[in-house]
Each structure stands twice: as structure tokens, then as C-alpha cells.
Write a structure and sequence with these properties.
globular; two-stranded antiparallel ribbon; eight-stranded parallel barrel; 10 helices; TIM Barrel; 311 residues
Length: 311
């Protein structure tokens, strides 16, 4: 961060004990970094592009160094229209681009007998895609996860639609820990942000150090509030007014995450994220500030005066 940052007083709210987690990153991952996904040769950027509002965003992200893309096979299908179009246009360039990118497709259907057709239909919807590199079980919960993953594991062993890795998105954080620690998937996506920081307590401290599973985050900027809203809450000009990109940096401060699933709406948003990660990472104090601010934004706490009384 540039310039002096003033911090608000602690919110008036019950505080959980500070968890034993790793210190923040000192260097943020870059678009051009590559991580091993699974055991079949996939290499992915720490940034995975999902929803977008313009098809041009896909090509801009690729040209900036992002090679990991994500769209749905069923739920939220209309919201990924521009992502699919963007991939089609990117692939139409030719020149071996298909072999340079990794495409993950998610299906939210939990019944084992319906864990194949959605991916087949998704593949047909994007000319030039040729294969689905990563099959993702969406919205997984512990009671149904193992039955679904048995089918996904069979798909992986048989190379169904050319896939070389499997993953899952989780709202059930304890289930994500089990999947990560026991290598039930090659990549796990969880939700962590300034208004949902619970992973600091029930995920990060429990992760095995020797796991080869990648951990990515989604819903990164949930909790962002525009300056006008923060002023209405009582923040003065002496306080830090976080930008959208600061919320990305909040996620990336956690070394437990290998990367993020992001949703830049426009090419300008891709460029803003690129510029933000070239700056200094957030400090632990700045992380805590954003969590406190998130408590206030959600109405779970109020700002405190200097004497500790509610404002």
C-alpha cells in the first residue's frame, strides 16, 4: 500500500481467538506463474478466469499470462455466455493455443448417473474446445461427495472427454479439508473473503503440509463496499477506503491459497488486477482491518470511538 494507512478501532463484537495461521505472503503470485494441477502434466496459472461480461476479456487475460479458464455445464449457464464465446474466439486464433490453456468445466448435478452428460453438452457448446481438461463437481457437501467422486475418478482413469484432473467447489468447508488432506480431488475451490473469513479457523490450520492438491478461492470480492457506503457508516477520510483490487490482495495474502477463481467483467478489470499484484502484498494488520470492516459492512459490528464506545 502507498502512503500512510490509518486503521479504525476494533468493532464492538465478540472476537474469536486469533487462529494459528501462516504469516501473509511477501510476494504475490503472477499471471505468468504456473502450478502443477494433478499428476497428468497440466500446468495452470494461479489465476483462473470464470464469469465475465465481455468475450474480449478472455483473450486479454490469455495475452496477459492467464491460461486457466472455468465455465459451467449446467447451473448459471447464461452467466458464462461471454466466457464460452471468448474461449471460442481465443481458440479460433489457432497456433496451438488449445495446448497452452487448461479449461475446467463444473457440473452441480449430484446424482452419480447424471455426472457425464452435462460435460458432453458443455464440450459441444464451445467449438474448438476439443476436450475438457478438468472435471469439477460443483457445490459439494460431505453427504453426497464420495458417491459423486467415484464417477469422477472413473472418468479420470478412463480419460473421459480428454480430462486429466478432477476438482470440486465447496461451501462445506470441513468437507473441503477432508478432500484436500486425503487427495480426493486435484483442485479444491472454497469461499473465503472479508465477510466470510471462517476458513482462518476451520480450514487453513487443518491443511496437511504435504498435500499436492491445489487450493483456489472464489467469491473474492464479496464484502467490497463503495466509498459512499463506507462514509455513510461513519468512516472518515483518515481511514483506508479499500478498492476492489485490495479484496483480491486480501485473498492472495494467504499462502494457503495457490490461486483464485476470478470474475473480471472487462479487460480493464484484468489490467487492474495485473497492476495490483505488482504492488506490495497486504500486511497482517491490513488483513485484520479488512475483516473488521467486513463485520461492520455486514451489520455484525459497529465502529468504535477512540475510547472504545460505539460510534
Amino acid at each position: 500500500m502507498q502512503g500512510k494507512v490509518e486503521y479504525m478501532s476494533a468493532p464492538v463484537a465478540a472476537q474469536q481467538p486469533i487462529p494459528a495461521i501462516k504469516p501473509p505472503r511477501t510476494v504475490l503470485p503472477k499471471f505468468t506463474d504456473r502450478l502443477a494441477l494433478g499428476r497428468r502434466g497440466l500446468q495452470v496459472s494461479p489465476y483462473c478466469l470464470g464469469m465475465t461480461s465481455t468475450d474480449e476479456t478472455v483473450s486479454v487475460a490469455f495475452d496477459a499470462g492467464i491460461n486457466f479458464f472455468f465455465f459451467t455445464a449446467d447451473m448459471h449457464w447464461p452467466l458464462y455466455e461471454m466466457t464460452r464465446r471468448g474461449l471460442q474466439k481465443l481458440l479460433a486464433r489457432g497456433g496451438g493455443i488449445r495446448d497452452q490453456i487448461v479449461v475446467a468445466v463444473v457440473s452441480y448435478t449430484p446424482q452419480p448417473e447424471f455426472c457425464s452428460a452435462p460435460f458432453m453438452e458443455a464440450l459441444e457448446a464451445v467449438p474448438g474446445l476439443e476436450r475438457v481438461d478438468v472435471l469439477v463437481a460443483g457445490g459439494s457437501y460431505a453427504p453426497e461427495l464420495l458417491n459423486r467422486l467415484q464417477v469422477y475418478q472413473q472418468h479420470l482413469e478412463q480419460g473421459f472427454l480428454g480430462n486429466r484432473a478432477i476438482g470440486s467447489t465447496f461451501h462445506d468447508r470441513p468437507a473441503s479439508v477432508q478432500a484436500y488432506n486425503h487427495h480426493l480431488v486435484d483442485i479444491a475451490f472454497i469461499r473465503y473473503n472479508t465477510v466470510h473469513p471462517g476458513a482462518r479457523y476451520d480450514v487453513f490450520p487443518l491443511l496437511k503440509k504435504d498435500s499436492s492438491v491445489l487450493l483456489y478461492n472464489f467469491k473474492n470480492v464479496m464484502g467490497y463496499a463503495p466509498p459512499s457506503f463506507l462514509q455513510q457508516m461513519g468512516l472518515s477520510r483518515d481511514h483506508w477506503f479499500p478498492q476492489v483490487t485490495d479484496h483480491y490482495k486480501f485473498i492472495l495474502a494467504r499462502p494457503e491459497f495457490h490461486g483464485i477463481l476470478c470474475a473480471p467483467n472487462t479487460p480493464e478489470h484484468v489490467r487492474a488486477l495485473h497492476d495490483a499484484i505488482e504492488e506490495n502484498p497486504l500486511s497482517e494488520e491490513e488483513e485484520n482491518y479488512l475483516i473488521n470492516l467486513g463485520e461492520v459492512v455486514q451489520g455484525r459490528a459497529v465502529l468504535a470511538r477512540e475510547d472504545g464506545s460505539p460510534s
